[in-house]
Every structure is written in structure tokens, then in C-alpha cells.
Amino acid sequence: MMKASLLVTLFVLFSLGAVGCAKKEQPMFTLQDEHYQQIMERQKARINPESQAPVDLTQVMKGEEYEKLGDAHLQQGDFRTAKIQYEKVLEASPEQIPARYKLAVIYLEKGSPQDAYNQFHQILDYDLNFAPAYEGMGRALLKMEKDQEAEQEFQAALLYDGEMWTSKNYLGIVADRRHDHKEAIHLYEVALQKRADDSSILNNLGMAYYLDTQYEEAVRTFQHAIQVGGSNDKISNNLGLALTKLGHFDLAYEAYARGMDSAKAYNNLGVAFLEVGKFARASRCFEKAIETQPSFYEKAKENLLLSNRMLSKLPMVQQQTLIRRDPACVSGVI
Fold first, then answer.
1. What's the pLDDT tens digit per position in 228-237?
2. Which of 93, 127, 129, 218 is the most buried if burial means most Cβ atoms within 10 Å?
């Protein structure tokens, strides 16, 4: 039986909708799959496209050579050419699981989840116990928004390989998507037992706390993710979202600014002020977004019009009070 350490998987990003009608960055779930990094490092050790001797295309290539060529193209991000090479392998030897798995992942990454599902499923014709194929089918089903079926496949993957923390992580995402955030928190914590201090799992755990309105726990978890080396900009964005829920708006701006340009950071902070009725301060933030990045004008202008309209609905005395009380978007920045 082939072990899971042989598979190649790619970075996956899931998002859930955010509240509010103004436009802002969405809170994001992430998964950095360990298997992709491991296999690519091994491939780099033996296949260097820069220094490798040219392939004599006039000679008939063997299946292994096609797969190596596909791996080299995959490393370079050339999915189309890699796909062609893997298909050549499978044309001659359809039982080659590594090539079929990588072909399935390419379909998944290129937005063809049904084709990906078919390839993952076909792997089971040759190895019914290959846990990554079940997980792959689950990933494809998630892309097709078939969460209940996806959950069954992730559970099947764990039956064949109880050490697959990635499937626990995906099950957490499924739980969050059905609003069972406490179950999601439990699943992410189990995944962390297998993969301690993994920033992607910590980010997902933080989002589960956030969605469960445990904002202080969310802030601590996002900060932990950053401390252990999480460089994903979405983690900083999610930290900013959680800080706004606690009323720490200046700290939220600092978090947003670490993960995106200042115009978007001002816009996101403006949306947070809108949600708590600080319309004057929201308007200042949207004005700063437009001033900082004129190309951001349309998006920020739409939000600025909304905040000004909400402000104008208040009694004049209250309007003036808000304007005097909140003269700037961020403290110390006029």
C-alpha cells in the first residue's frame, strides 16, 4: 500500500462570508499541506530544471521520465505542461498512482473539481486503502459545495490513515461552514495535537473562535499563529477583524496594515466603524483610503457614500458631536 508521504498536494484556501453590506476583506480559512512541501523538496534535490541535462526528445521516453518532466513543470507552476506529461504516463500505465494523484490535484487547482474527483476516485481502482484519494475526493466535493458528502470522504481518509491531520483540519472547515463552531474548535485542536504550532491550523482555530464570538480567544490564537511564523496575510487580516470586535481599532489598523496595503487597511477599519455606528470616523477612514490610493477610489467611495448617508440620518446635534469626537480615522493620523 502506498503511504501518504508520497503524495503531492497544493495550497488550498477556503473563505466564509463576512457580515455587513460594505465591501471589505473576507475572513479566511487556510490549509498549508505538509505533503506538497515534502515531496517538492525531494524533487528539487534530484531534479533541477536549470542544471539538468537536456532531454533528447528524439528518443522514446519512458513513463518515469515523463513523470519527472511533469514534476519539473509542476515546480515551475506550469500546470498545463505538467498535466500533459502525467497524462502520457497514465496512457501507458494507468495504475501509476503518483501521476494520477498529481493530475487530480492539477484539476483541483485549475477549477475543475468534478474532473479532480473522477481522478481521485479512479485511484481506488488500484489501491482501495489509499487515504489521500479519499481526502482528495473530499476536497473536490468541498469545491462543489457538497459539504455532507465531503465530510464522509474526510472521515474515510481517517479510517485508512488516522495520522492525517489535514483531514481533521478539513473536517473543522466543514463544521464551521455548517455553523457548528464548537465542533470545529475541537477538530482543529485535535489537528494541532498532530501538527503542533502549525500556523494554518492556528488560523482556522482562530476563525472558529471568531465565528463563535470568542473574540479574545480569537485574538490570542491569531497572535500565536503569527509568532510561530505564520506569514499568510490572511492571518493579519483575521487578527484585525477580531480586534475590531473588542473595540481595539488602532491595533486593528496595525494588523490590517501588516497584511495589505494601507488603502485597504483604512477601508476595512471604516467598515468596522460602520458596524458599530461610528459613522463620522468611518467616513474619515474611507477618505483616507481614497487619499492614500486613488485607484481604490470606486470601492472606497461606495462605502464613503454609505457612511455619509447614515450620518445624515442622525439629528444635527448628534452629527456634530460625532464629528468633533472622531476627527480622525486612526489616532494620531489626520
1. 986 778 899 9
2. 218
The ranges of the chain with pLDDT < 70 are 1-63, 230, 296-297, 317-327, 332-334
The tens digit of pLDDT for each residue in 183-231 reads 999 999 999 999 999 999 999 999 999 999 999 999 999 999 999 986 7
Of 35, 43, 47, give the one whose Cα is nearest residue 10. Answer: 35
Q: Which domains does the chain have, with CATH numbers?
A: 1-178 (1.25.40.10), 188-255 (1.25.40.10), 261-334 (no CATH)
Which phi and psi angles does 4 have, rounded to 5°?
-65, -25
